[in-house]
Amino acid sequence: MTSSSVALQASSLTVFREKTPVLSDLTFKLEAGQIVGLLGPSGSGKTTLMRAIVGVQTIEKGSLQVLGLPVGNRKLRSKIGYVTQSPSVYGDISIKQNLRYFGTLVGANNQQINTLLKQVQLYEIRSRLANDLSGGQRARLSLAIALLGAPEILVLDEPTVGLDPLLRRDLWNLFKNYAKEGVTLIVSSHVMDEADRCDYILLLREGRLLAQGDKKSILKNAREARTIESAFIRLVEDNKEEKR
């Protein structure tokens, strides 16, 4: 793990798409070993921020550092795992063959692969073709692939969407175990109650940070709101009042 306690740090981070700002002046600092909830409605800039973190998004203004290095640095390639919203797997080969293929890229052995398969509850069906998997099973396979290189940063785009409650609970327990080992997880969601499972929250709206901090501090700053969803609504309303 990195010797620094800071996993990610952004300063005035700004991203444009066809001259329209998608992210505007984001500044934050995230400690290592936390589950960070990247929350906001569709179109708020969550995926763009995740793309910036993994180094595949052009940054027009400001800066973003990951593990003390500027994003896009070649040394970060093996340190960041990324699970996109659409699972990226080879459908015509089995679950285990997918892991073996991607495992050769990061030097993962058979024991590591089997351990991951058990963690994501796919070991018993490891010989099944990826094309024959349900949406939730394909999502878990993508997660296992992202974990192959033992990344220090794990970026997850809507990882629990469409999953049944029991599997959703099991995945969050897995995320917590990785955080205890020092992995920093960036978990995006448009479902505000996911905040209950996060150590730190970045609340996004229209490409701007509406609020950041732990759940308790965000609720307090939103006029003692009782839920993150109600806090989001109050903060939006407060911002409208300030602009009048």
Task: Walk me through the topology.
Layout: E1 6-17, E2 20-31, E3 35-39, H1 46-54, E4 61-66, E5 69-70, E6 80-83, H2 95-106, H3 110-119, H4 135-147, E7 153-157, H5 165-180, E8 184-189, E9 200-205, E10 208-213, H6 215-221, H7 228-243
Parallel strand pairs: 3-8, 3-9, 6-7, 7-8
Antiparallel strand pairs: 1-2, 1-4, 4-5, 9-10
Helix pairs in contact: 2-3
What structural keywords apply?
single chain; 244 residues; alpha/beta; Rossmann fold; 2 domains; 6-stranded mixed β-sheet; 4-stranded antiparallel β-sheet; 7 helices
Morphology: globular
Q: Assess the beta-strand content as a share of residues.
A: 25-35%
The ordered H/E elements are EEEHEEEHHHEHEEEHH
Mean pLDDT: 91
Instruction: Name the strands of the widest sheet in spatial order.
Output: 6-7-8-3-9-10
CATH topology of the largest domain: Rossmann fold
Low-confidence stretches: none
Radius of gyration: 18 Å
Spatial separation of the terminal alpha carbons: 48 Å
CATH architecture of the largest domain: 3-Layer(aba) Sandwich
What class do helices, strands and sheet pairing give? alpha/beta
Number of helices: 7
CATH top level of the largest domain is Alpha Beta
What is the total domain count?
2
How many β-strand runs? 10
What kind of sheet is the major sheet?
Answer: 6 strands, mixed
CATH level-four homologous superfamily name of the largest domain: P-loop containing nucleotide triphosphate hydrolases
